[in-house]
Amino acid sequence: MKDFRYHVVSLVAVFLALAVGVVLGSGPMRDALVGDLSDQISSLEEEAESARADADAAQAQTTTAQQFTDEAAPALLSETLLGVAVATVEVAGPDPQDSSGVRDRLVQAGATVAAEIVIEEAWTNPDQTAFRSSLASTMAPNVVGVDDATSPTTVLSHALAQALMPGVLPPGSTEDDLSGTDFPDPANAAERSALLLDLLVEAELVSGTTTAPIESFAIIAGPGAEDDAARAELSSSLAATAVVLADYTAGVAVASGPDAPGDLASAVQNSPDASAVVATVVEGTDSYGQISVPLAISQAFSGTVGHYGPGEGRTLVPPTP
To answer: Which key words tag this protein in UniProt (predicted)?
Structure first.
């Protein structure tokens, strides 16, 4: 008897479930549920269509802006760096297209890109501190303007400048200072520069190519480390290198991406020593800012070291000569 009652209850439950399904699947209840769902679908479709339209409009504006930039660049940059030999120095991993874009604008300004150098991660890697110190000690006898008290980073930075600028000596040095090197004759400046560059390349601190002595540096900065503190430490070291390069030429500018805590542009701007001798262009690696890089270098050569781009303490666009 118990088993029979159990089966009866089970059958009743099944029929009740079927009845409820019929009620929900037809009549007013169905219309209420399906109608509400249809309204939601229609609303989502409208939002998606609006988003597509906005994206298409933004893309059209971007295309127009890029076309305007490409067409305006020759007039804005014409002969601003005519005949100047520039080295592009990539640091902190910039996008290759950004670096290529900066180089294109330098060429449009009349410059010759005589060196394409990459400062490798080992230049600032804390794990390589002892190695850099040993290398700096080895190279120092052939680097003019340094002594036993000079920090390894400063020695290597002077070595890089002298490697790319044969015959150019830091302030306060004369050709008499060459007497302590392996190349005391000023006529052998090219050989000393080649040695310094070879040592830096073999140590995997830098890489790249050079085709002629250079007169200016365009430092192209990537985003660097994801951690703000690590990025700031990296940027501080690179800013110190940029200051050393500025001992050799007035034409030194840093092109960076959008503002980021501890990035190279802010490290330069926040340092009284660096900000006085190294120009910066924030968003200088995008299609707009790339035009500002040659203009910033040109202004620096004229005696005005500026800081350009969006943000506090900057001028949006460098003045044209």
So the answer is: Coiled coil
